[in-house]
Design brief:
CATH topology of chain A: Rossmann fold
Distance between the termini of chain B: 48 Å
Order of helices and strands of chain B: EEEHEEHE
Strand order of the largest sheet of chain B: 3-6
Largest sheet of chain A: 8 strands, mixed
Number of helices of chain A: 11
Structural class of chain A: alpha/beta
CATH architecture of chain B: 2-Layer Sandwich
Number of helices of chain B: 2
Chains: A alpha/beta (292), B alpha+beta (86), C alpha/beta (399)
CATH class of chain B: Alpha Beta
Radius of gyration of chain A: 18 Å
Largest interface: A-C, 45 and 42 residues
Helix content of chain A: 25-40%
Structural class of chain B: alpha+beta
Strand content of chain A: 5-15%
Oligomer: heterotrimer
């Protein structure tokens, strides 16, 4: 990647935080003609917006409020449209700020065809504030608000499928991505810049919340894709295409075993997880066959 | 009396925010140049963007390397070793 | 002054002209009774090509204010409108509009806050957000709604101020009732209200900056202080812009308050909003009967015009403050509390009586204002404050 690194070289993300790498990569593709929204969350907390009188990026950046990233972006895009300016209006938002508190704003902004690029970095929880569960946290995962105990077995609900929810808005471009497949991700960002409003959902393993050693980040991410727990696909103007079909599909057990947050899962629970993943993968393969 | 004249109306940042994250390292990456084939995969995956190629040699900006070990983990030729020394 | 037209307009329509003439760039609003006709008129104006603005039909009031903050940071002149529940829903970004020093203008068609379920007039909505740092105007009639909305943009965008402004008007009593209104000419408004020039903070790739980075307490304290100073400075700006508008358009709203027949008044009523119109009639009537009754119209609640109020009330013997809301924590209205607080440091201390009236659409009509006037005059003559706060619309009277 020979493009310009527009993120500060020293931000206080965890050692081996792969969200940092996803943001860095995204900004390289987006370039200087970009305005960036970073709501409260991991990236906000690490200094990407800045501290005191400093800025964490080399492009305009600001803090939206937690629920309103997409609405603020929608307003900014409207202002630029009025002024006749063509600028990338981008939100880089966590799963909490997207699927939970930010969902209404996102749905509205997309339904209004706002000229925005929305990237959700999903580390499956409110990691910045201490690893509380979000609606995209995987079934069974330990989090600080779904802890283990005499009566606690981790999260009892399945994860919300944000990408499909956004696809149901009939928006020009929806894609899932993984930091283990950076060229797939950058290609998707390039498409997202042209087909707006666009939505990219990237699953970022979190060493602190998912509990794995820092160097394994890409291994864990790769397994999420190769086990079909996190399929990579894009939906361009209604046509679904799976952008990576694993050569040999790994069993979900392998994925689960890399993370301490799943350590307590029983054989039955892992089997349930496997069945759910299989069901969704077959559904995805069938969806791919249906014309737009 | 606070000197409000020089204060902007709202907080804005114009200088780049930089933390000396290199100080965080417990392990330090060492590249064995004879094994490195300049594939660029370490640079692609490095979260802090501190790896770069300089005249056919991969260098690491130790000022910002946090010692996460991802580079060593993804290197296809195992050319990078994480060592407990600076 | 160029040719104007006079039309019979309801308050929402008058407000819409104020907005259209001020030419905002981005409008984002969500419908709520009794504001809805206002945003419909604006939508029609855009559809007819009368107003060149980007309109976002947002999915909630929270998103309305949020979208405007984004647009304002990107350099646009912005406008929205709401009432009661909507204003409460957008409280999170409403507070931020002032702390980000954005010159957003908002019309509030005042409506009582739920519960009980209501749609009708009350000030609990806008008074409820008085701590959010917005400048707040209360209009007496539909002409004032139009004129004050135009003035609001100029006040908000003044570089000494840079604070958002809400122009409030009574739901249904003004919003849906028609009065003759003179509509200024666009060219005159253009010369009165120059184009918006964003100040300092802007989202622009040509001038990269971080807006609102995480801020330590010492710096935050300085920003709060600076904002308080701006609110103080706005008092002069409001007065000056009132004068400028009067010179250009011929209508004078007297700045922060209007003192009507207060010079020798023994008893003074303090009113807010449309009740002022009826109160004028009552003052005139009581004057004809030989009573030294006066009236102060509280045009601006925030910044609170303590100095002006004290100047006109301190020589009277009794002041009857009629609030169109009640603060649960004190059992009185806000204007009452603020006036008493302002008078505390003054040597002469008139009796101040709290009247609560007009909640949830209740009328503050001749009967109610007569009672308020009589009670206040009585207090001034006997030099005796009533034992209780007085609820003018309470069935069976207050105990």
């Amino acid at each position: 990647m020979k493009k310009e690194d527009l993120l500060s070289p020293g931000i206080s993300a965890c050692v081996g935080c792969i969200v940092e790498s996803s943001l860095r990569l995204a900004l390289k593709v987006l370039g200087r003609n970009t305005v960036l929204a970073i709501p409260p969350g991991c990236m906000g907390g690490t200094g990407v917006v800045g501290w005191e009188n400093t800025m964490g990026t080399k492009i305009p950046v600001f803090f939206p409020l937690f629920p309103n990233t997409a609405s603020m972006l929608s307003g900014i895009a409207a202002a630029y449209e009025y002024q006749g300016k063509k600028i990338n209006v981008v939100g880089f938002v966590g799963d909490g700020g997207t699927a939970d508190i930010g969902l209404q704003a996102l749905s509205g902004a997309v339904e209004r065809n706002s000229d925005i690029i929305y990237i959700c970095y999903d580390n499956e929880g409110y990691m910045n504030t201490g690893m509380q569960r979000s609606s995209t946290t995987s079934y069974g995962a330990w989090t600080s608000t779904t802890p283990l105990g005499k009566k606690g077995k981790g999260k009892t609900q399945n994860r919300k499928d944000m990408a499909m929810i956004m696809a149901a808005h009939d928006m020009p471009y929806v894609a899932t991505a993984s930091p283990a497949f950076p060229l797939d991700y950058t290609k998707k960002i390039e498409k997202a810049m042209k087909l707006k409003p666009s939505y990219i959902h990237i699953l970022n393993p979190c060493l602190t919340g998912w509990k794995y050693p820092s160097e394994k980040a890409i291994e864990v991410a790769k397994l999420s894709v190769q086990s079909c727990a996190w399929p990579l696909y894009e939906i361009e103007n209604g046509t679904l295409k799976i952008t990576h079909k694993p050569g040999k599909i790994r069993p979900i057990k392998e994925y689960v075993e890399t993370q301490g947050r799943f350590k307590h899962l029983t054989e039955e629970e892992i089997e349930e997880y496997q069945n759910d993943v299989n069901r969704k993968w077959i559904r995805l393969l069938n969806l791919e066959k249906i014309p737009a | 009396m606070t000197n409000l004249e020089n204060l902007s109306n709202i907080p804005i940042g114009k200088e780049l925010y930089i933390v000396e994250t290199g100080d965080w390292k417990v392990l330090t990456p060492f590249i064995q140049l004879n094994k490195c084939n300049l594939c660029g995969i370490c640079e692609l995956y490095c979260p802090t963007g501190c790896m770069f190629e300089n005249e056919k040699i991969v260098e690491i900006n130790m000022q910002y390397c946090k010692g996460c070990g991802i580079c060593a983990n993804v290197c296809p030729t195992s050319a990078i070793e994480m060592r407990a020394e600076k | 002054m160029a040719k104007t037209t006079i039309e019979v307009l309801n308050g929402n329509r008058a407000a819409s002209y104020g907005v259209i003439l001020s030419k905002p760039h981005v409008i984002a609003a969500y419908p709520i009774t009794p504001q809805t006709p206002l945003i419909e008129y604006i939508a029609q104006a855009i559809a007819d090509g009368e107003l060149d603005a980007k309109s976002l039909e947002v999915e909630s009031e929270h998103s309305a204010m949020s979208a405007l903050e984004g647009a304002s940071l990107a350099g646009a002149r912005t406008f929205t409108a709401t009432s009661s529940q909507g204003l409460a829903y957008m409280y999170e970004p409403v507070y931020r509009a002032s702390t980000l020093r954005l010159p957003i203008v908002m019309n509030i068609a005042n409506r009582e806050m739920d519960s009980p379920q209501t749609l009708w007039c009350g000030h609990s909505d806008s008074v409820g957000v008085r701590s959010a740092g917005w400048i707040q105007f209360y209009a007496e009639n539909n002409q004032e709604i139009l004129d004050t909305t135009i003035q609001a943009f100029k006040i908000a965008e003044s570089k000494e101020v840079l604070l958002p402004v809400m122009v409030c008007y009574d739901g249904f009593f003004l919003s849906h009732s028609s009065e003759p209104v003179e509509i200024p000419n666009q060219s005159d408004v253009d010369s009165f209200l120059p184009p918006y020039q964003p100040n300092q903070a802007i989202l622009d790739p040509e001038h990269p900056m971080a807006i609102d980075p995480l801020t330590p307490s010492s710096l935050l304290t300085s920003y709060r202080y600076k904002q308080v100073k701006a609110m103080e400075a706005s008092k002069e700006v409001i007065k000056n812009i009132n004068k400028e508008y009067y010179n250009k358009f011929g209508r004078n709203y007297h700045g922060l308050i209007e003192a009507y027949k207060c010079e020798d008044a023994e008893a003074i009523l303090v009113t807010t909003g449309s009740m002022t119109g009826t109160a004028r009639y009552i003052v005139d009537k009581f004057r004809l009967e030989g009573n030294r009754l006066g009236l102060i119209k509280l045009r601006v609640l925030s910044p609170f015009p303590a100095e002006e109020l004290v100047k006109h009330t301190s020589q009277a013997k009794a002041i009857g403050v009629i609030d169109r809301h009640v603060q649960f924590y004190s059992g009185t209205g806000t204007a009452y509390l603020e006036l008493k607080s302002a008078l505390y440091d003054h040597e002469s201390q008139p009796i101040v009586i709290a009247f609560i009236a007009g909640l949830g659409g209740a009328e503050i009509g001749i009967k109610e204002l007569q009672q308020a006037a009589k009670t206040t005059l009585n207090a001034s003559k006997k030099n005796e404050k009533p034992k209780e706060n007085i609820w003018l619309n309470l069935q069976g009277g207050s105990k």
